[in-house]
Structures are given as C-alpha cells and as structure tokens.
Amino acid sequence: MRLTFGTLHLAHTMNNPTLPTLDDPENLSDKAASAWERATEKEVAAEAGRAWNNTKEKAAEALHSSQRYVREHLGSSVLGVFGAGMVVGALLAWTVAHEQRNDTAENIHRFLARLGRKLNLD
C-alpha cells in the first residue's frame, strides 16, 4: 500500500478494488476517517495560512509602491485625487438633484390631484 499526502489518495499497487480509498470516506473505519479529516483540516489550515501570508506580502508591496509613486509624482497625484473627488461629487450632486426632482414631481402631482378633487374635476 502507498499513502501520498499531496493528493490524499490511498492506493494499492495491485489496484485492489476492495481497498478503501480516501476518495470514499464511507468505506473507511472510524479511526481512519477521523485521521483523514484531521489531515485534511491541517492541510486546509496550512494552505489558508500560506494564502494569508502571500496576500499580506502583496498588499505591503502595493502600499510601498503607491507611496513611492506619490512621493515621486506629487503634482500628478494631487491632480488625480482632485479629479476623482470632482467626479464623485458630481455623481452625488446628480443623484440628489434627481431624487429631489422626483419628489417635486410627486408633490406637484399630489397637489394637482387634490386641487382637481376640490374643484370636482374628476
């Protein structure tokens, strides 16, 4: 028998179909199943740790790179931030104006409906 932890596959050199494999945990004994689950949990935890460390390293590199760029190109960075602020401000102003316009249209419609009822124009 051979057990490889890289792929978590238990195989017999003679390809014995009655031999339980880790791909089918229902055929394993309770001890073997719990050992398989612990090994899987450890591998998942280790991989998650490696991914987290890799992400932290890349984020730190991106932070240092952006700080260096801002220091080297201060004028264009300030103008870029100013332009982005103007775009965001324009979008917010348009959204607020659009909502007020809808509210105003609804208020006018309600006013005219009440006026029509008072004047019996229905």
Short description:
The protein contains two helices and two strands, in the order E-E-H-H.
Give an account of the 3D structure.
The protein is mainly alpha-helical. It has 2 domains: 1-72; 74-122. The protein has 2 helices and 2 strands; from the N terminus they run ββαα. It has a two-stranded antiparallel sheet with strand order 1-2. The model is unreliable at 1-14 (pLDDT under 50).
Strand percent estimate: under 5%
Number of strands: 2
Strand order of the largest sheet: 1-2
Number of helices: 2
Unreliably modeled segments: 1-14
Our measurement of the CA-to-CA distance between the termini, rounded to an integer number of angstroms, reads: 90 Å
Q: What level of helicity do the residues show? A: over 70%
Biggest beta sheet attributes: 2 strands, antiparallel
Evaluate the radius of gyration: 33 Å
Coarse shape: flat
Give the SSE string.
Answer: EEHH
Helix-strand makeup class: mainly alpha
Number of domains in the coordinates? 2
pLDDT averaged residue by residue: 77
